[in-house]
Amino acid sequence: MGNSKLILSKYLVIVPDKFAISVKVFEVSGDVMRPEGVKTSFVLLDLETNAPTLLVDNHAPFGFHMHTGLPNNKHIRVKLEVTTYQEAYEAFMVEVERRVKDSKN
Questions:
Q1: Could you tell me the sign of the dihedral formed by the alpha carbons of 85, 49, 105, 13, in that order?
Q2: Integer Cα distance of 44 and 62 in angstroms
Q3: pTM metric for this prediction
Q4: Rounded Cα distance, 54 and 89, in Å
Q5: Alpha helices in 1-105 (DSSP H)
Q6: pLDDT (tens digit, 0 to 9) for every residue of the chain, 105 residues total?
Q7: Does residue 93 sit in helix, strand or coil?
Q8: Rg of the chain's alpha carbons, rounded to an integer?
Q9: What is the spatial distance between Cα 36 and Cα 39, in angstroms, rounded to a whole number?
Q10: Measured distance CA(70)–CA(35) in Å, rounded
Q11: CB of 39 within 8 A of CB of 4?
């Protein structure tokens, strides 16, 4: 990543033995790959399989987007209509809440 600065990092178990989230945001120089000036990684982890089940990241040519087919299909992407990492995080958390609720049914 060259010159980057970690500006946000957290790991939270949100449902014991079931789900955790990992959130990382790096400040990077704005370039063709990341014109927003940040590199994001928001991950919902299934603690039973130790596999990611949801990922939000950002890079060209997609901008901020959500990988919804994990762990089996990392190529399924849903574009997020957001312009900041804070808005992308909010969209991520909405989907996390939906998936956690659905897992209880």
A1: negative
A2: 20
A3: 0.93
A4: 12
A5: 85-103
A6: 568 999 999 999 999 999 999 999 999 987 889 988 999 999 999 999 999 999 999 999 999 999 999 999 999 999 999 999 999 999 999 999 999 999 988
A7: helix
A8: 14
A9: 8
A10: 26
A11: yes
